[in-house]
Amino acid sequence: MSTNLIQGKDREILRALAQKQLEYAHSPKNDEILKKWKAQAEGRKESPTVRLLFSNFTHEVITPPDAVRR
Fold first, then answer.
1. Could you report the per-residue pLDDT of 34-54, keeping only the tens digit for each?
2. Per-residue pLDDT averaged across 8-32, rounded?
3. Average pLDDT score, the chain
4. Which of 11, 24, 36, 55 could bond 49 through an S-S bridge, CB–CB 3.0 to 4.6 Å?
5. What string of DSSP letters covers 11-50?
6. Beta carbons of 49 and 37 less than 8 angstroms apart
7. Are 39 and 26 in contact (CB under 8 A)?
8. What's the CA gap between 66 and 70, in Å, rounded?
């Protein structure tokens, strides 16, 4: 019986995904995000660490009628 539970093609896919995740983790953009989180943890409010674009899921967000900009 083989102890290799992941087939060759699946292993290649997983390695490619792991490489992409590693690149994201070491990216300058991720460094900026980490700086913002650290600033927040230290009580400094430099900028929001989480940003939501409500326009991406308009059917899932309920906005009060008086809050809608015209």
1. 888 888 889 887 776 676 777
2. 93
3. 82
4. 36
5. HHHHHHHHHHHHHHHTSHHHHHHHHHHHHHHTT--SS-S-
6. yes
7. no
8. 10
Task: Give the type of residue at 48.
Answer: P
Q: Is the pLDDT of residue 2 over 80?
A: no
Extract the tokens encoding 40: 């927040």
* 24 to 27, 30, 41, 56, 58: CA distances (angstroms): 5, 7, 22, 22, 28
Take residue 16 and report the two structure tokens written for it. Answer: 């490619």
Q: How far is CA 48 from CA 34, 57, 61, in A?
A: 12, 20, 20
First-to-last C-alpha distance (Å) of the chain: 68
Ranges of each domain in the chain: 8-67
DSSP-derived 3-state class of residue 53: coil
